Amino acid sequence: MSKQGQVALFGASGSIGHSVVQALRAQGRGYRVVGRSRSSLQREFGADPRAELVTWNPDDPASVREAARGVSTLIYMVGVPYTDFHLHPVLMRRTLDAAIAEGVERLVMISTVYPFGRPRTERVTEDHPREPHTFKGRMRKEQEDVVLEAWASGAIQTTLLRLPDFYGPGVERSFLYRAFRAALDGKRAQLIGPIDTPHEFVYVPDVGPVVTALMDEPRAYGQAWNLAGAGVTSQRELVERIYAEVGRRPKVMALHRPLMRVLGLFDPMLREFVEMDYLHTTPVIMDDSALRGLIEVRKTPYAEGIRQTLEAMRASDAASHVRPALAS
Hints:
The structure is a single chain. The protein has 13 helices and eleven strands. By secondary structure, the chain is an alpha/beta fold. The chain has a domain at 3-166 and 202-230 and 284-299: Rossmann fold, CATH 3.40.50.720. Strands 3-2-1-4-5-6-10 form a seven-stranded parallel sheet, sandwiched between helices. It has a two-stranded parallel sheet with strand order 7-9. α1 (15-26) packs across α7, α4 (87-101) runs parallel beside α5 (135-152) and α8 packs across α13. 40% of the residues are buried.
């Protein structure tokens, strides 16, 4: 088995995938990236000689097996559209079946706070009951159950890492992304309200090193782990910091549940957000003391994460303005 094939990233093109790739590169390790589009994989990872590019069709079990062939560790980060959450357990089961058939030794799945449902405690540990009251939460819990049951059967070593909301350079699927964009453009930020309740965010570049450390730790398998954010804050507080960093006064419009219901008649994504509204009224704040007792966890303070995110966005904006001139 080649060094490149030892670690495979299913769903590598997402923001978490890129963070894991950066961690593997920093360690000088080869890796396989698995995605639907060869051209996208080539564009994102083709310049790295340590990267092995493999395309798959997640709807085809034979294709999934081929993508897992020769792998010792599989990191699963496959996303689905917000409107297609029923696919999460289906794709997970298909991937695990393929991994077991191909003799993959370990699987790490990136999960979320959705399976917990409404929190019963101020801080949520890994032992908090998983009683989701939403469809999306039930699908994510079923996905987790598939992974944990595979470990219990002895067929493969598995573990889960749960993340809160996240932000960072290149992360457009974040509640905070529109605030960053609006601050740079001098416009009003639209946020999902209420925006003064406690909340936490993880800085995406911090996730990759945690995933690789967890992957390499034998004691990590057979259970789930929480990764909390860099501290309890609120959307309003972070937006004020973002606007202050660009030298502007904050301008915010909060979309509350009644308005989201109305706008959801025309916007399918907003319609889907209504179901998860509880996360902004009774937020899940995670306790990750167990993870920090297992591996080293470094977290970028919000002020520094905001500065680096804005810096990356400015650089991207400048590059997009230069490209047409170079092409002419």
